[in-house]
Specification:
503 residues; eight-stranded parallel barrel; magnesium; pyruvate; single chain; two-stranded antiparallel ribbon; 2 domains; TIM Barrel; lyase
């Protein structure tokens, strides 16, 4: 599409909120409520894009029908696909059953027919997110599959209105190494796209994950990898003439992005070059709604102005070395404490209707030889135990970086590292870590992380405000009752409310 609007904010269905949505009566959001949520996201919060998630969760397949029939006048004034955007996140055929992919395609095509029938601009949906993208071939295969489905014709049915024959793919890069080489994937994609479709895309929206690379590699490696990726995107634009409008999968807690309604300026400063920020459920529902609306307006104002920092080739080589310094201790510790993380995560309150991640419908994530919960459960479990994951491996990485003379290069590219460590450190509970270390030696190395971070910051970690001290009380209780976690569901819930995010 030409002269298209690139939304600055994208709401997602990530189930990371602790409290009750401002429009609801309870914390849990059923699939049936997500259409209402989508409309209110557009009409009340001022967010212009909503990610409709087919990956690993149940989904209302009649979303466009419901939106257009229930809010026809609104979408006459603010058309889908022109001013407001509904973007399907597809199930990846590598890990989820392919029939869900076909159903998503059918929904996109039938939405185009419906919009035409109602006299609205078409197509209302024209791009999709492909999770876990690792090769250009995966992107092309999605486009080829869609083109085949769109070409099906029979006198008894019509797939689409004939105007939507090609789908645009937003590749979601979810690993540290993949993010750093994602420009090469995009270059190969452009070559294959021209070979297959005889055209080159005018705009691409590479989507860098923020939570899953952190889960797999730790905080500092993830941020540094994204800085390398954003720098490469600048080179890509100069080389190809194709506009890149990067998306980042930001969430509220620093481990998963650190974007809250109160940290917009810091976030925009840290992630210059990003054009679209994800606003997950905690951002929208765990803070006062007027503050959320103001934050969306500020993101609209600030985010488009940023230009990515250039990372030279010699600097990139050094950053790759630094990434290993932090990644190795992080992964070694996570492998040792993974069983308890997974156990605590199962007792966190559920917020949406997800399908199981192991077995027929889904998949799990992992580090080394262990399986882990998804990023929200992982982060929420560690915060609930009083040991925020931002701290794990980071202290030992900083200690080694100091010896190697690498602190300056880290701070030059992770601008707000100290701010993020201070913020996470306020939810650290020394008593809880001591309790966990007595029960398992796997936790002991985190003590070294704490000492090194405190040396780096020049201050002790721990709660400062009354609210943070209340959180510490809950985490002490949980850490002392890991043999009886089924009785800890209320403290788990209260701790999440106190930190304004489930995970």
């Amino acid at each position: 599409m030409t002269n298209r609007i690139i939304p600055t904010t994208m709401a997602s269905q990530h189930p990371d909120h602790a409290g009750v949505p401002y429009w609801g009566k309870k914390e849990f959001i059923s699939t049936r409520k997500e259409v209402k949520e989508c409309f209110l996201t557009f009409s009340e919060l001022g967010i212009n894009e909503y990610k409709w998630d087919w990956e690993g969760k149940f989904v209302d397949e009649s979303v466009v029908d419901r939106l257009l029939h229930e809010h026809f006048e609104y979408f006459q004034k603010h058309p889908l696909g022109r001013e407001k955007f509904l973007t399907f996140r597809l199930p990846n055929p590598k890990v989820e059953t392919e029939f869900r992919l076909g159903r998503a395609f059918m929904g996109i095509l039938s939405a185009s027919s419906l919009a035409k029938q109602l006299g609205l601009p078409t197509p209302p949906l024209f791009e999709v997110i492909l999770p876990m993208t690792e090769t250009a071939k995966e992107m092309i295969e999605i486009e080829e599959a869609f083109a085949e489905v769109a070409s099906l014709k029979h006198r008894l049915y019509s797939l689409g209105d004939g105007t939507l024959k090609h789908i645009e793919v937003i590749p979601l890069f979810e690993q540290v190494e993949t993010i750093m080489r994602s420009d090469a994937i995009l270059e190969e994609y452009v070559r294959l796209h021209y070979k297959q479709f005889k055209t080159k895309p005018k705009v691409l929206r590479p989507y860098v994950a923020r939570s899953d690379p952190a889960l797999n590699s730790g905080l500092v490696p993830t941020v540094l990898a994204i800085k390398v990726g954003l720098s490469h995107y600048r080179d890509f634009e100069k080389k190809t003439g194709i506009v890149l409008s990067p998306i980042i999968g930001s969430a509220c807690l620093p481990f998963r992005g650190g974007l809250t309604p109160y940290s917009v300026k810091q976030f925009c400063d840290e992630y210059k070059g990003v054009r679209t920020a994800l606003l997950q459920s905690a951002f929208r529902y765990d803070y006062p709604t007027p503050d959320v609306v103001k934050a969306v307006e500020l993101l609209d104002q600030l985010l488009p102005k940023g230009t990515a920092q250039i990372v030279s080739k010699p600097t990139e080589k050094q950053l790759r070395e630094v990434i290993g310094m932090f990644e190795r201790p992080y992964c070694a510790t996570i492998e040792g404490i993974a069983p308890l993380i997974s156990e605590v995560a199962t007792h966190l309150p559920k917020r949406r209707e997800r399908v199981q991640h192991i077995g027929l419908f889904g998949y799990s994530r992992g580090v080394g030889g262990v399986r882990l919960p998804r990023a929200i459960g992982f982060t929420g479990a560690l915060y609930s135990l009083g040991v925020p994951p931002e701290l794990i491996g980071t202290g030992r990485g900083l200690g080694l970086a100091r010896k190697e003379g690498k602190l300056e290069i880290i701070e030059r590219h992770y601008i707000h590292l100290k701010d993020d460590l201070r913020r996470a450190g306020r939810f650290f509970n020394r008593e809880a870590l001591d309790t966990l270390s007595q029960q398992s030696a796997a936790w002991e190395a985190i003590g070294e992380d704490i000492r090194e971070i405190e040396r780096y910051l020049g201050e002790e970690l721990g709660p400062k405000t009354a609210e943070e001290k209340e959180h510490a009380g809950f985490t002490s209780l949980i850490a002392s009752n890991i043999e009886n976690l089924s009785s800890m569901e209320e403290p788990l819930h209260q701790a999440a409310l106190t930190r304004r995010s489930l995970g």
